[in-house]
């Protein structure tokens, strides 16, 4: 039967004055004049075209993720704590949205063409998302990552068909920082493509010399870069397509899913795309929603948000020779201001620690069956901190960025945690000062 949509008043009036047979027709047709039996027959014959519920390919299945009540944290804090299940995206993380937006905007502008290669310097999630969606656009993916990132991330990338370079972690000011290498690879791919066009008899070896510097020794992607129709550097830190993915997608979804009944939003920042896109959208559309950052160890953003100073003497990026992120949480925390983060509209910030993130992940696993990655766990620490700060009776939204599956070798590895003094011991939320 067709869906019944009518007002109570019509239904009551109809029930009193006419027969049940006529009533059913009133409801279905929504008209008040009686139709002829012939017309009725016609309508019955006309088969309603069933609207398809299927989505148009992989990329159409990205976004519109569920928003769930995290029961344990809601009960403990007296707030409604809601998590946006970004780990349910096809590529397994919040970065799927960003990958789609970056590629679509680049294709639209002509900076990337079908058959081209998208390069990225990423500690994992964005690269996995780019590698996942690139084939849907007829493109390839080359990824440069620091070699201290969990090994399962590069295994996934290779399985997805991307080429991977694992490089020594160095400061962003260094020419061989993984982000700078990725940028260079796109330039190289463009040069190769244009030289190939000019002289297709040239072989790969001579092209490598024309590029001005050799490909990295362990660059397994050289054949991919030599055989593509140009390169495009995704540049998730500075490319504002990242911000727009959240400003146009995640933010509006959160507002709709909560019926605009939310008081606060909190998330950690890596590139800053999520916290910037969501906070700006929410505050532009409902200015009384408070937005907060939760910042992991080693990151300078807490100071930036609370004191306006990013570059403290011990945190200045240029002074560091090693990876500055001394934390078990992956993908979050940064010591420079990105174009994306600069668009955030924040009311405050909290600091989170590694042990809090580890304890939170085990607490959620035990109490809610939520198997979450390290940044999601940190975000939930942030949600509790916000609840403690604004008090019970409020609705707080955070992001569940990815699942624990990608964190087996560190965050969910007892031996690794024990070596770093991070063995979880809590029975409840006492690590956040709650009974
Ligand atoms: C797993 C994970 N969570 C969270 C973030 C942070 O999100 P954003 O880059 O939007 O600040 C990242 C960034 O790479 C990530 O990989």
UniProtKB/TrEMBL annotation:
It comes from Carya illinoinensis. Its cofactor is pyridoxal 5'-phosphate. Residues 59-402 form the Tryptophan synthase beta chain-like PALP domain. InterPro entries: Cys_Synth/Cystath_Beta-Synth, P-phosphate_BS, TrpB-like_PALP. This is cysteine synthase. Signal peptide: none annotated. GO terms for biological process: cysteine biosynthetic process from serine. It holds the Pfam family PALP. Keywords: Membrane, Mitochondrion, Mitochondrion outer membrane, Pyridoxal phosphate, Transferase, Transmembrane, Transmembrane helix. Residues 38-60 are annotated as: Disordered. It is an enzyme of class 2 (transferase).
